[in-house]
């Protein structure tokens, strides 16, 4: 059964957290960029390379059989983790970005035409903007942003007014990487379906923080990233409804995604192989499977309660600093994005690094969002289940030092 959060035991599972930076114990608050990896993941990847290193789906020898079993098992684990109906609705990619590109370049190029519209939330990551702009240029479709309110929430009234028979697809982050805002994707998907449009959710920031059921949400596509949820980098996945994926043409060509090949033409394999050409990131997928097992060993409610306490403490701490302002006050995951009158976010990040506190600064691959908020960048502290309340509190004296230095 699920275990309670014992932070002492839990933190010992993360070797990267047990180090000093600039002579001080590391305080890692850049989890929205990437989470650290537990021993369970690192050892499983090492086990594959040491004992089962072979290609999957292509060998009859024992190593290939074992590697294939572990690889295929990870797909089933992810299917169950997100509530998909079938394991073949899970397509492994090299990340969330490739998952979105797959939808854009496969479904988009095959279905969009001049006059069609793609609606994207005003807080999208560049990974959900640029692919659709590229496809729009080739098809004559138009990309339109859904406005956001000063609170950091989407303007649902404006969204409803933008939806029309021209709308073919709506793309929206489930949780914003820049602000932490949790978007009402279930309601938004229902509204999109009412006008005949499809709905794509970017789940990169949500999967480590809350329960996700793609069928309950009613989304048509859901993009995922392993390294945001304690898994390895370089691997992600796309969930897509089977009937949509079956109708979509291949995104890339190569081995293992074919049924037959001749000089006269090629026929393609069924799902999921049709969208997984070449040798996959086998160790990464197996490591992700280990991360899913590890994360599934904790009570989601305990994770949520702990992270909300971290969010509360960090928000209150930042708000007490003279000249500091939290950006975005909507319901959110454990992300605090802020600015200071005295210092540019890059200066804030540099000074915090000198105090062994790792945060993220910049536009967070959300330049249109920053422009709409009227700021060039923000400083962002983002939390994971292994962070301690004392680490959130440590922002206080560190930011006071910034205020004093630049004030």
List keywords for this structure.
Aspartate Aminotransferase, domain 2, 2 domains, four-stranded antiparallel sheet, alpha/beta, 407 residues, globular
Instruction: Indicate the CATH class of the largest domain.
Output: Alpha Beta
Number of strands: 17
Radius of gyration: 22 Å
The helix content, as a percent range, equals 25-40%
* Biggest beta sheet attributes: 7 strands, mixed
Given the C-alpha coordinates, what overall shape results? globular
The CATH topology assignment of the largest domain is Aspartate Aminotransferase, domain 2
Poorly predicted sequence stretches spanning 5 or more consecutive residues:
none
What's the arrangement of strands in the largest beta sheet? 4-10-9-8-7-5-6
Percent of sequence in beta strands: 15-25%
| CA distance, first residue to last residue | 51 Å
Number of helices: 15
Explain the overall architecture.
- The chain is α/β, with parallel strands linked by helices and about 400 residues long.
- It has two domains: about 5-30 and about 300-405, Aspartate Aminotransferase, domain 1; about 45-295, Type I PLP-dependent aspartate aminotransferase-like (Major domain) (Aspartate Aminotransferase, domain 2), CATH 3.40.640.10.
- About 40% of the residues lie in helices and about 15% in strands.
- It has 15 helices and 17 strands.
- The strands form five sheets. Strands 4-10-9-8-7-5-6 form a seven-stranded mixed beta sheet, with helices on both faces. Strands 13-14-17-16 form a four-stranded antiparallel beta sheet.
- A hairpin with an 8-residue loop joins strand 13 and strand 14 (about 335-340).
- Helix 2 runs antiparallel to helix 10 (about 280-295), helix 3 (about 60-80) packs across helix 10 (about 280-295) and helix 12 (about 345-355) crosses helix 15.
- The longest helix is centred in the first third of the chain and has 21 residues, at about 60-80.
- The protein is globular.
- The N and C termini lie far apart (about 50 Å).
- The mean pLDDT is about 95.
């Amino acid at each position: 059964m699920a275990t309670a959060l014992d932070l002492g035991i839990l933190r010992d599972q993360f070797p990267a957290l047990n180090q000093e930076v600039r002579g001080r114990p590391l305080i890692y608050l850049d989890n929205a960029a990437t989470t650290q990896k537990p021993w369970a993941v690192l050892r499983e990847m090492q086990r594959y390379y040491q004992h089962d290193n072979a290609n999957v789906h292509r060998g009859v020898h024992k190593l290939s059989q074992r590697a294939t079993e572990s690889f295929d098992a990870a797909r089933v684990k992810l299917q169950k983790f997100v509530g998909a109906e079938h394991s073949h609705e899970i397509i492994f990619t090299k990340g969330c970005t490739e998952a979105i590109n797959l939808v854009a370049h496969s479904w988009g190029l095959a279905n969009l035409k001049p006059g069609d519209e793609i609606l994207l939330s005003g807080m999208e990551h560049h990974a959900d903007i640029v692919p659709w702009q590229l496809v729009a240029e080739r098809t004559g479709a138009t990309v339109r942003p859904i406005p956001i309110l000063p609170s950091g929430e989407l303007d649902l009234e404006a969204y409803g007014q933008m939806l029309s028979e021209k709308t073919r697809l709506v793309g929206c982050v489930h949780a914003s990487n820049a602000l932490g805002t949790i978007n009402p994707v279930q309601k938004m998907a229902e509204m999109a379906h009412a006008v005949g449009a499809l709905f794509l959710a970017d789940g990169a920031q949500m999967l480590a923080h809350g329960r996700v059921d793609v069928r309950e949400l009613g989304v048509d596509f859901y993009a995922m990233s392993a390294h945001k949820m304690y898994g390895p980098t370089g691997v992600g996945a796309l969930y897509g409804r089977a009937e949509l994926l079956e109708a979509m043409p291949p995104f890339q060509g190569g081995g293992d995604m074919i049924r037959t090949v001749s000089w006269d033409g090629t026929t393609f394999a069924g799902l999921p192989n049709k969208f997984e050409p070449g040798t996959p990131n086998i160790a990464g997928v197996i490591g992700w499977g280990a991360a899913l097992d590890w994360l599934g060993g904790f009570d989601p409610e305990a994770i949520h309660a702990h992270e909300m306490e971290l969010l509360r403490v960090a928000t209150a701490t930042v708000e007490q600093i003279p000249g500091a302002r939290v950006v975005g006050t909507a319901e959110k995951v454990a992300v605090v994005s802020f600015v200071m009158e005295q210092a540019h976010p890059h200066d804030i990040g540099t000074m915090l690094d000198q105090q062994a506190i790792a945060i993220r600064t910049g536009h967070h691959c959300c330049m249109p969002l920053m422009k709409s908020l009227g700021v060039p960048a923000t400083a962002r502290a983002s939390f994971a289940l292994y962070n301690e309340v004392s680490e959130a509190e440590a922002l206080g004296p560190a930011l006071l030092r910034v205020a004093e230095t630049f004030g």
